[in-house]
Amino acid sequence: MLTVDFSRFPLAAGDRVLDLGCGAGRHAFECYRRGAQVVALDRNGEEIREVAKWFAAMKEAGEAPAGATATAMEGDALALPFPDDSFDVVIISEVMEHIPDDKGVLAEMVRVLKPGGRIAVTVPRYGPEKICWALSDAYHEVEGGHIRIYRGDELLDRMREAGLKPYGTHHAHGLHSPYWWLKCAFGVGKDGKDAALPVRAYHKLLVWDIMKKPRATRLAEQALNPLIGKSFVAYATKPHAPAAPAVPSSTSAAGEGRA
């Protein structure tokens, strides 16, 4: 289930991509399938080991084109182990709402992104997230949980302050907001057979939708995304630095003085 829309966020074969806070690796896998040179980074070592296994399985199954590469590694989003201007593309999906120093994370992403490079940032949308917080303290008051709710314009302002130039936004996962509202209402800690019947039934619907992608639910989600889409997605570029003004040579300057 992808949050980034690659029809709005072009990715070329050979692009060097950083999936920052990759989690289970969904965006990293898609970039690998598209022929990118992917680095999936997360602070969770257990998830990184699973992502590495999936990369190996994808390579074995021939799911990635020739020239594509994939690396999974542990790392700190506030101290990325890469030189300046290392990546053509950076993706950070559903991560910034967890990190106290979100401005520091943005600064690090801009540092490692090449001038002219592209960045995709996704966070929980303000309205649906506000409902989750109102329904359940347990939804966000957990270790490593959500510590803030972004308004769309607030996130865009922070991206601009970091030196990025936003060029597009949209909302995603309109079918998923009701599921999380149900979980918050009936108990976020209850999963599987322990979950309430409405939660289990809706989860079954979502799994069916993800696996089968029927036209009816695709159309329903398109209609719901602008209204109750669970995620807010923003795309931006890192501008090229303006060219420094030419400095006259001492010889030409002297000549101009004599004129």
From TrEMBL:
Keywords noted in UniProt: Methyltransferase, Transferase
Entry's Gene Ontology molecular function annotations: methyltransferase activity
Domain Methyltransferase type, first and last residues per copy: 18-120
SUPFAM superfamilies per the UniProt record, alphabetical: S-adenosyl-L-methionine-dependent methyltransferases (SSF53335)
Keyword Methyltransferase listed: yes
Descriptive protein name: SAM-dependent methyltransferase
Originating species: Streptomyces syringium
An example Gene Ontology biological process: methylation
Superkingdom per UniProt: Bacteria
Keyword flag Cell inner membrane: no
